[in-house]
Amino acid sequence: MSENNNTSKISSRFIYALAGFALVNLVVWKTSAFGLFTPQKDLQQLVQQNDESDTTSMSKTWPWWIAKAYLDEKQTPDVVVLGDSQMATAIFTADAKASGKKVDVIAHRHVEGLEQRLSDKLARPVSVFNAAMAGSMASDHNLIARSLFLDDADTEKPKLVVVGISPRIFIDNTLPSAGSTEPFRFFSQCADPGNLAQLAFTDYFDQMNWCINKYLPLGRLKTEMQTTYSPSKFLPKTTAIAKKSAQKADFMKGMFASATKVEKDEWFVPAFMPYLFKDNTAEYVNRYTNPNPPLYAGELAYFGDLLERLNASKVPTLIVMMPSLGPNRALLPETFWKVFRTNISSLCKKNNATLVDMSTSPDFVLEDYLDTVHLNATGGLKLLTNIANSISDDRNLTAGLTNQPVAAKPIH
Predict the structure, then answer these.
(1) What's the angle, vertex CA 208, arms to CA 301 and CA 84, rounded to 5?
(2) Which regions of 55-96 does DSSP assign to beta strands (E)?
(3) CA distance 51 to 332
(4) For a pLDDT cut of 70, what percent of the chain falls above it?
(5) Helix, strand, or coil here: 319?
(6) Residue closest to 311 by CA, chosen among 354, 358, 340
(7) How far is CA 103 from CA 67, 112, 224, 340, in A?
(8) Rounded distance, CA 412 to CA 405, Å?
(9) Residue 378 burial by CB count (10 A; 0-12/13-18/19+): exposed, middle or buried?
(10) How far is 78 from 225, CA to CA, in rounded Å?
(11) Whether the Cβ atoms of residue 143 and residue 187 lie closer than 8 Å to each other
C-alpha cells in the first residue's frame, strides 16, 4: 500500500512540475511582447549584444568577429569565401607574404591576393570577404552564409561565393556533433536550421536540450540572460588588460584555433616565415578513424541545402576541393574517396555549382605545406592563383562580377 502511495506522490509531483514549467514558459512568452527578450535574433542584434564597447572582450569568439566584420562592410562584398582552417591558413600566409606585413588573423577579413588577381583579370575592382573559420564544418558554412546574406530577402547578395571543402568538414570523428561547434551555436540564433536541426545532433538528449534552449520561451530567456549578463562584462577593466599583456602572439594558434575567445592585436601571421613542416598524420588518424561516422549524412545534407539556397538566390558558386598531401589522403580508403567525390559532384551538378577538384593537384608539392593539409605562403599564393583562374575562365562565375559597378544597398 505504501509503495502505491509513494508512486502516486511521485506522479503527482511530476505532473505539478510539468504544469509549473509550462506555466512559467507561458508567462515568459507573454512578456516577450513587451521586449523582455528576443525569440529569434537578426545578425545585428546578435553582434550588438557583445559589441566592441565591452572592454573585457572575453565573450567574443571567432564567429562574433566575422559577423561584426561583415556588418561593418560599407557595401556588399563581390565575393564571399567560406571554408575551414585549410582555406583560412592559405589566405593569411599568402596575404602576409605578398604584402610584406604581418597579418592580424582576427582583423584580416579581405582576401587581398584574390582581390588583386581577380581585379587584374576582370579589369575592375573586386572585393573578396574572408568568412573562412578554423574548425568549421559544412553545417557551419550553411549557417554562416544564411546569417550573413542568404536568409534576409532585403539583404543584397554577393555576386559569387567560393567554398573550400575537404573530407574533414564532413566526417571529423573528434567532433561530438555538428551542433557542438561554436559557429553553430552562434549563428543558429539567427539562422534557424529548421528540419535540419535533428541532423546536427547524434545524441537525443543533446538535441532535446538544444530545442528547449532554442524554442521554449524559458530556455530562450536563459540563453539571453547568459549572453547579455555574462559575468565577464562586470570584471574590472584591468582584468582584460592583464590577460592581454600575459598572452603572446602565436600565429599557429591564430590560424588553427576555432572556439577560443579571441581579441585583436594578439595573434599574427608574420610576413616572412622560415620553412616549417609538421607531420600531423596522428591528428588526422583520429579525425578519420571512421570514414562514415553518424554526422556524415547530416553534413552532406547541410552542404546540399547551402548549394540549393545559393542556387535559388541566383548566387554563382565555386566549390574548391582543397589540396592535401598523399599521406593524408591515404588515411581514407579509396572506396571513401570514390563515393565522396560522387556525392559532391552530384550535389554541385544538381544545384548549378562549379566544382574544381584540387585535392590531388600536382601544382602543390611538399614545400607548399605547413603540415599534411595546411598550405604555407607559397602554397597559399598558388591556391589563390588557381581559384582566380577557375573563376575568370568560367563565364557563369564571372557573370555578376563583369557587370558595371553599381552602388550597393546597405547590408542591414
Answers:
(1) 40
(2) 79-82
(3) 43
(4) 71
(5) strand
(6) 354
(7) 19, 11, 34, 35
(8) 20
(9) middle
(10) 37
(11) yes
C-alpha cell at 311: 542556387
- Please name the residues in contact with 183: beta carbons below 8 A apart, sequence gap of 6 or more: 62, 63, 133, 136, 137, 140, 143, 144, 258
Q: How many CB atoms lie within 10 A of CB 218?
A: 17
- Cβ-Cβ contacts under 8 Å for 154 (sequence gap 6 or more): none
H or E element, residue 162: strand 160-165
d(CA 54, CA 245): 17
How far is 84 from 284, CA to CA, in rounded Å?
Answer: 15
Of 191, 176, 134, 183, give the one whose Cα is nearest residue 295: 176
Query: CA nearest 87: which of 380, 388, 345, 382?
Result: 380
Query: 247 by DSSP, 3-state: which?
Result: coil
Q: Please report where in the chains the cell 573578396 appears, as a residue.
A: 128
Q: Cell match 544538381: residue? A: 350
**Amino acid (one-letter) located at 60:** K
In DSSP terms, which residues pair with 164 in a beta bridge? 320
Query: What pTM does this model have?
Result: 0.81
- 114-118, 244-248, 289-293: least confident range: 244-248
Q: How far apart are CA 88 and CA 81, in angstroms?
A: 9
* Residue 119: all three cell numbers together: 581585379
- Cell numbers found for residue 235: 570584471
For the chain, the first-to-last Cα distance in angstroms comes to 66
Q: Dihedrals φ, ψ of 235, to 5°? A: -75, 150
Sheet holding 128-130, edge to edge: 128-130, 79-82, 160-165, 317-321, 354-357
Of 271-280, 299-308, 342-351, 364-373, which gets the smallest average pLDDT?
A: 271-280
- CA gap 178, 176 in Å, rounded: 7
3-state secondary structure of 346: helix
